[in-house]
Amino acid sequence: MDGNQGPEHAGGRTLTAPLPTPEEQLAAAAGKRPQLSRDVVRDLRIMAFLQRHYHALSLPLTALFLLYNRRFHPSYGMTWRKKLALAINMRRATRKIQTGTSYKAHLAMAAKLLEIPPKVKGAVVECGCWMGGSTACLSLVCDIVGRELIVYDSFEGLPPAEPGDKYASPLGEGYLRAELDIVKDNVRRYGAIDRCTFRKGWFRDTLPHHTEPVVLAFLDVDYEASMYDCVVNLWPHLTEQGYVFIDEYTRIDYCAIFFSERFWREHFNAPPPGLMGSGTGVGVGQYFLGPLKPRQLIQAPTSVAYTRKDFYGRWDYVRVGEESPLEHSFDDH
Description:
Elements: H1 22-29, H2 38-57, H3 59-67, H4 80-96, H5 103-115, E1 123-127, H6 133-145, E2 149-153, H7 180-190, E3 196-200, H8 203-206, E4 214-219, H9 224-234, E5 238-246, H10 252-255, H11 261-268, E6 305-308
Parallel strand pairs: 1-2, 1-4, 2-3, 4-5
Antiparallel strand pairs: 5-6
Protein backbone atom coordinates (compact mmCIF):
# COMPACT_ATOMS: atom_id res chain seq x y z
CA MET A 1 0.00 0.00 0.00
CA ASP A 2 1.29 3.47 -0.85
CA GLY A 3 2.57 5.24 2.24
CA ASN A 4 0.37 8.25 1.49
CA GLN A 5 -2.80 6.22 1.36
CA GLY A 6 -5.01 5.59 4.36
CA PRO A 7 -6.38 2.19 5.29
CA GLU A 8 -9.59 2.89 3.42
CA HIS A 9 -7.59 2.50 0.19
CA ALA A 10 -6.19 -0.93 1.07
CA GLY A 11 -8.22 -2.89 -1.42
CA GLY A 12 -11.51 -1.80 0.14
CA ARG A 13 -10.38 -2.91 3.61
CA THR A 14 -9.59 -1.15 6.84
CA LEU A 15 -6.82 -2.28 9.14
CA THR A 16 -9.38 -4.24 11.11
CA ALA A 17 -12.06 -5.60 8.81
CA PRO A 18 -13.56 -5.32 5.33
CA LEU A 19 -15.79 -2.33 4.82
CA PRO A 20 -19.48 -3.30 4.45
CA THR A 21 -20.57 -3.87 0.89
CA PRO A 22 -23.29 -1.61 -0.56
CA GLU A 23 -25.68 -4.57 -0.28
CA GLU A 24 -24.86 -5.00 3.40
CA GLN A 25 -25.29 -1.28 4.04
CA LEU A 26 -28.65 -1.24 2.28
CA ALA A 27 -29.81 -4.26 4.26
CA ALA A 28 -28.68 -2.64 7.52
CA ALA A 29 -30.39 0.65 6.68
CA ALA A 30 -33.61 -1.22 5.88
CA GLY A 31 -33.35 -3.32 9.01
CA LYS A 32 -33.14 -6.51 6.97
CA ARG A 33 -31.04 -9.56 7.69
CA PRO A 34 -28.68 -10.72 4.92
CA GLN A 35 -29.39 -14.08 3.30
CA LEU A 36 -27.39 -16.75 5.12
CA SER A 37 -26.47 -20.26 4.08
CA ARG A 38 -27.88 -23.27 5.92
CA ASP A 39 -24.49 -23.99 7.49
CA VAL A 40 -24.14 -20.45 8.80
CA VAL A 41 -27.68 -20.50 10.23
CA ARG A 42 -26.87 -23.76 12.02
CA ASP A 43 -23.62 -22.33 13.39
CA LEU A 44 -25.42 -19.20 14.59
CA ARG A 45 -27.98 -21.28 16.46
CA ILE A 46 -25.27 -23.37 18.08
CA MET A 47 -23.33 -20.23 18.97
CA ALA A 48 -26.36 -18.58 20.55
CA PHE A 49 -27.11 -21.72 22.58
CA LEU A 50 -23.53 -22.07 23.84
CA GLN A 51 -23.12 -18.38 24.63
CA ARG A 52 -26.42 -18.20 26.48
CA HIS A 53 -25.54 -21.12 28.72
CA TYR A 54 -21.92 -20.08 29.11
CA HIS A 55 -22.90 -16.61 30.35
CA ALA A 56 -25.39 -18.11 32.78
CA LEU A 57 -23.06 -20.78 34.15
CA SER A 58 -20.07 -18.45 34.39
CA LEU A 59 -21.91 -15.71 36.28
CA PRO A 60 -20.65 -16.70 39.77
CA LEU A 61 -17.04 -16.85 38.56
CA THR A 62 -17.45 -13.58 36.67
CA ALA A 63 -18.67 -11.88 39.83
CA LEU A 64 -15.81 -13.43 41.80
CA PHE A 65 -13.02 -12.39 39.43
CA LEU A 66 -14.34 -8.91 38.61
CA LEU A 67 -15.75 -7.96 42.00
CA TYR A 68 -13.24 -9.50 44.43
CA ASN A 69 -11.46 -6.20 44.97
CA ARG A 70 -10.14 -4.77 48.23
CA ARG A 71 -9.94 -1.33 46.61
CA PHE A 72 -13.73 -0.99 46.60
CA HIS A 73 -14.59 1.89 48.87
CA PRO A 74 -16.05 0.54 52.12
CA SER A 75 -18.80 3.18 52.22
CA TYR A 76 -20.56 1.38 49.36
CA GLY A 77 -21.11 -1.68 51.55
CA MET A 78 -20.46 -4.20 48.79
CA THR A 79 -21.12 -7.49 50.50
CA TRP A 80 -20.99 -10.63 48.39
CA ARG A 81 -24.75 -10.69 48.41
CA LYS A 82 -24.83 -7.20 46.86
CA LYS A 83 -22.13 -8.13 44.35
CA LEU A 84 -24.02 -11.19 43.15
CA ALA A 85 -27.27 -9.22 43.01
CA LEU A 86 -25.58 -6.60 40.84
CA ALA A 87 -24.25 -9.25 38.44
CA ILE A 88 -27.62 -11.01 38.26
CA ASN A 89 -29.54 -7.78 37.64
CA MET A 90 -27.10 -6.66 34.96
CA ARG A 91 -27.38 -9.99 33.16
CA ARG A 92 -31.15 -9.78 33.41
CA ALA A 93 -31.13 -6.30 31.88
CA THR A 94 -28.96 -7.37 28.93
CA ARG A 95 -31.20 -10.38 28.29
CA LYS A 96 -34.36 -8.28 28.30
CA ILE A 97 -32.96 -5.30 26.38
CA GLN A 98 -31.03 -5.72 23.14
CA THR A 99 -27.48 -4.46 23.61
CA GLY A 100 -24.12 -4.77 21.90
CA THR A 101 -22.11 -5.42 25.07
CA SER A 102 -22.39 -8.18 27.64
CA TYR A 103 -23.21 -7.78 31.31
CA LYS A 104 -19.58 -8.72 31.96
CA ALA A 105 -18.43 -5.53 30.24
CA HIS A 106 -20.85 -3.54 32.38
CA LEU A 107 -19.55 -5.27 35.51
CA ALA A 108 -16.02 -4.23 34.50
CA MET A 109 -17.14 -0.60 34.43
CA ALA A 110 -18.94 -1.08 37.73
CA ALA A 111 -15.74 -2.43 39.29
CA LYS A 112 -13.89 0.75 38.37
CA LEU A 113 -16.69 2.96 39.70
CA LEU A 114 -16.70 1.10 43.01
CA GLU A 115 -13.02 1.95 43.49
CA ILE A 116 -13.64 5.71 43.25
CA PRO A 117 -14.14 7.32 46.69
CA PRO A 118 -17.37 9.29 47.21
CA LYS A 119 -15.31 12.42 47.93
CA VAL A 120 -14.31 12.50 44.24
CA LYS A 121 -17.20 14.41 42.75
CA GLY A 122 -18.39 13.62 39.27
CA ALA A 123 -21.05 12.04 37.12
CA VAL A 124 -21.04 9.00 34.86
CA VAL A 125 -21.63 9.84 31.19
CA GLU A 126 -22.92 7.53 28.49
CA CYS A 127 -22.77 8.55 24.84
CA GLY A 128 -24.90 6.37 22.60
CA CYS A 129 -27.46 4.29 24.48
CA TRP A 130 -29.43 2.59 21.69
CA MET A 131 -32.27 0.66 23.44
CA GLY A 132 -31.04 1.46 26.95
CA GLY A 133 -29.47 -1.86 27.90
CA SER A 134 -26.13 -0.42 28.96
CA THR A 135 -27.97 2.55 30.45
CA ALA A 136 -29.97 0.25 32.72
CA CYS A 137 -26.80 -1.56 33.84
CA LEU A 138 -24.84 1.61 34.48
CA SER A 139 -27.77 3.11 36.37
CA LEU A 140 -27.74 0.13 38.74
CA VAL A 141 -24.16 0.77 39.83
CA CYS A 142 -24.72 4.54 39.82
CA ASP A 143 -27.49 3.93 42.35
CA ILE A 144 -25.01 2.07 44.56
CA VAL A 145 -22.29 4.73 44.38
CA GLY A 146 -24.69 7.67 44.47
CA ARG A 147 -23.79 9.25 41.12
CA GLU A 148 -25.80 10.81 38.34
CA LEU A 149 -25.85 9.05 34.96
CA ILE A 150 -25.98 11.57 32.12
CA VAL A 151 -27.07 9.97 28.84
CA TYR A 152 -26.33 11.69 25.54
CA ASP A 153 -28.06 10.37 22.42
CA SER A 154 -29.87 11.74 19.40
CA PHE A 155 -32.62 9.10 19.79
CA GLU A 156 -32.77 9.39 16.00
CA GLY A 157 -30.25 6.68 15.16
CA LEU A 158 -26.89 7.21 13.51
CA PRO A 159 -26.17 10.75 12.27
CA PRO A 160 -25.61 11.86 8.68
CA ALA A 161 -22.21 10.76 7.42
CA GLU A 162 -19.44 13.35 7.55
CA PRO A 163 -16.76 13.54 4.84
CA GLY A 164 -13.59 11.69 5.79
CA ASP A 165 -15.28 9.32 8.26
CA LYS A 166 -14.58 5.88 6.80
CA TYR A 167 -16.96 4.15 9.21
CA ALA A 168 -19.90 6.38 8.29
CA SER A 169 -22.23 5.83 5.37
CA PRO A 170 -25.14 7.85 3.97
CA LEU A 171 -27.06 4.57 3.98
CA GLY A 172 -26.63 4.24 7.75
CA GLU A 173 -28.43 7.44 8.67
CA GLY A 174 -31.15 6.63 11.21
CA TYR A 175 -29.90 3.09 11.82
CA LEU A 176 -30.02 1.94 15.50
CA ARG A 177 -32.82 4.40 16.20
CA ALA A 178 -34.71 4.07 19.47
CA GLU A 179 -37.25 6.55 20.80
CA LEU A 180 -36.46 8.24 24.11
CA ASP A 181 -39.71 6.97 25.65
CA ILE A 182 -38.76 3.37 24.80
CA VAL A 183 -35.31 3.80 26.35
CA LYS A 184 -36.79 5.34 29.49
CA ASP A 185 -39.31 2.53 29.80
CA ASN A 186 -36.55 -0.09 29.51
CA VAL A 187 -34.44 1.63 32.15
CA ARG A 188 -37.45 2.06 34.41
CA ARG A 189 -38.10 -1.71 34.25
CA TYR A 190 -34.55 -3.00 34.61
CA GLY A 191 -32.46 -0.17 35.99
CA ALA A 192 -32.63 2.88 38.26
CA ILE A 193 -34.36 5.58 36.21
CA ASP A 194 -34.09 8.18 38.98
CA ARG A 195 -30.32 8.25 38.51
CA CYS A 196 -30.61 9.17 34.83
CA THR A 197 -30.59 12.50 33.05
CA PHE A 198 -31.23 12.29 29.30
CA ARG A 199 -29.84 14.92 26.93
CA LYS A 200 -31.20 14.61 23.42
CA GLY A 201 -29.35 15.82 20.34
CA TRP A 202 -26.35 15.24 18.10
CA PHE A 203 -23.06 15.03 19.97
CA ARG A 204 -21.56 17.97 18.12
CA ASP A 205 -24.44 20.14 19.39
CA THR A 206 -24.87 18.88 22.95
CA LEU A 207 -21.42 17.89 24.22
CA PRO A 208 -19.80 21.35 23.90
CA HIS A 209 -22.24 22.46 26.61
CA HIS A 210 -21.29 19.74 29.09
CA THR A 211 -20.08 21.23 32.40
CA GLU A 212 -20.14 18.49 35.06
CA PRO A 213 -16.98 16.68 36.18
CA VAL A 214 -16.88 13.10 34.87
CA VAL A 215 -15.52 10.08 36.74
CA LEU A 216 -16.35 7.60 33.97
CA ALA A 217 -17.58 7.90 30.39
CA PHE A 218 -18.84 5.06 28.21
CA LEU A 219 -18.67 5.87 24.50
CA ASP A 220 -20.59 3.60 22.13
CA VAL A 221 -20.78 5.92 19.15
CA ASP A 222 -19.77 3.90 16.03
CA TYR A 223 -18.50 6.75 13.86
CA GLU A 224 -15.09 8.44 13.91
CA ALA A 225 -16.67 11.90 13.85
CA SER A 226 -18.79 11.00 16.88
CA MET A 227 -15.78 9.65 18.78
CA TYR A 228 -13.94 12.87 17.96
CA ASP A 229 -16.79 14.96 19.39
CA CYS A 230 -16.90 12.85 22.55
CA VAL A 231 -13.19 12.88 23.31
CA VAL A 232 -12.62 16.56 22.49
CA ASN A 233 -15.55 17.72 24.60
CA LEU A 234 -15.52 15.28 27.52
CA TRP A 235 -11.81 14.67 28.17
CA PRO A 236 -11.29 18.12 29.76
CA HIS A 237 -14.04 17.30 32.28
CA LEU A 238 -12.56 13.96 33.37
CA THR A 239 -11.40 13.85 36.95
CA GLU A 240 -7.71 13.27 37.68
CA GLN A 241 -8.13 9.50 37.37
CA GLY A 242 -11.37 9.46 35.38
CA TYR A 243 -12.07 6.60 32.97
CA VAL A 244 -13.16 6.45 29.33
CA PHE A 245 -14.56 3.13 28.09
CA ILE A 246 -15.33 2.46 24.43
CA ASP A 247 -17.25 -0.24 22.58
CA GLU A 248 -15.66 -0.14 19.09
CA TYR A 249 -12.39 -1.66 20.26
CA THR A 250 -12.17 -4.21 17.40
CA ARG A 251 -11.24 -1.42 14.96
CA ILE A 252 -7.54 -0.89 15.47
CA ASP A 253 -7.48 2.25 13.35
CA TYR A 254 -10.45 3.59 15.37
CA CYS A 255 -8.63 2.91 18.65
CA ALA A 256 -5.64 4.80 17.26
CA ILE A 257 -7.16 8.08 18.45
CA PHE A 258 -5.90 7.16 21.92
CA PHE A 259 -2.36 6.65 20.61
CA SER A 260 -2.21 9.58 18.17
CA GLU A 261 0.51 12.00 19.26
CA ARG A 262 -0.74 14.56 16.74
CA PHE A 263 -4.32 14.47 18.04
CA TRP A 264 -3.35 14.79 21.71
CA ARG A 265 -0.74 17.45 21.02
CA GLU A 266 -3.15 19.59 18.98
CA HIS A 267 -6.15 19.31 21.29
CA PHE A 268 -4.69 18.89 24.77
CA ASN A 269 -0.94 19.60 24.51
CA ALA A 270 -0.43 16.25 26.21
CA PRO A 271 0.89 12.80 25.35
CA PRO A 272 -1.68 10.19 24.27
CA PRO A 273 -3.08 8.01 27.06
CA GLY A 274 -3.17 4.71 25.14
CA LEU A 275 -6.00 2.20 25.36
CA MET A 276 -6.26 -1.00 27.39
CA GLY A 277 -7.86 -3.76 25.30
CA SER A 278 -7.28 -2.26 21.86
CA GLY A 279 -8.24 -4.83 19.21
CA THR A 280 -9.71 -7.59 21.35
CA GLY A 281 -11.15 -5.92 24.48
CA VAL A 282 -10.18 -6.35 28.10
CA GLY A 283 -10.47 -9.81 29.58
CA VAL A 284 -13.86 -10.22 31.22
CA GLY A 285 -14.38 -13.90 30.43
CA GLN A 286 -15.39 -13.55 26.79
CA TYR A 287 -13.63 -15.31 23.93
CA PHE A 288 -12.50 -13.17 21.00
CA LEU A 289 -9.11 -13.38 19.34
CA GLY A 290 -9.78 -10.99 16.45
CA PRO A 291 -9.93 -9.66 13.86
CA LEU A 292 -13.63 -9.03 13.51
CA LYS A 293 -13.86 -10.33 9.93
CA PRO A 294 -13.36 -13.16 9.40
CA ARG A 295 -13.89 -14.68 12.83
CA GLN A 296 -15.12 -17.89 14.33
CA LEU A 297 -18.85 -17.50 14.92
CA ILE A 298 -18.57 -18.92 18.42
CA GLN A 299 -16.35 -16.00 19.40
CA ALA A 300 -18.09 -12.78 20.38
CA PRO A 301 -16.54 -9.30 20.73
CA THR A 302 -18.75 -8.18 23.60
CA SER A 303 -16.18 -6.64 25.92
CA VAL A 304 -14.90 -3.04 26.19
CA ALA A 305 -11.60 -1.19 26.07
CA TYR A 306 -10.65 1.68 28.33
CA THR A 307 -8.18 4.39 29.21
CA ARG A 308 -7.73 6.73 32.15
CA LYS A 309 -6.91 10.42 32.45
CA ASP A 310 -3.49 9.73 34.01
CA PHE A 311 -2.44 6.89 31.65
CA TYR A 312 0.58 7.40 29.40
CA GLY A 313 0.69 5.83 25.94
CA ARG A 314 3.61 7.50 24.16
CA TRP A 315 6.67 5.58 22.97
CA ASP A 316 9.67 7.42 24.42
CA TYR A 317 12.64 5.19 23.71
CA VAL A 318 15.16 6.65 21.26
CA ARG A 319 18.48 4.95 20.70
CA VAL A 320 21.43 7.17 21.57
CA GLY A 321 22.77 8.81 18.42
CA GLU A 322 19.47 8.47 16.53
CA GLU A 323 17.61 11.39 18.09
CA SER A 324 15.33 13.18 15.66
CA PRO A 325 14.85 16.95 15.61
CA LEU A 326 11.17 16.25 15.02
CA GLU A 327 10.72 14.75 18.49
CA HIS A 328 8.04 16.70 20.35
CA SER A 329 7.90 17.55 24.01
CA PHE A 330 4.79 18.22 26.06
CA ASP A 331 4.27 20.80 28.75
CA ASP A 332 3.19 18.16 31.26
CA HIS A 333 5.90 15.61 30.45
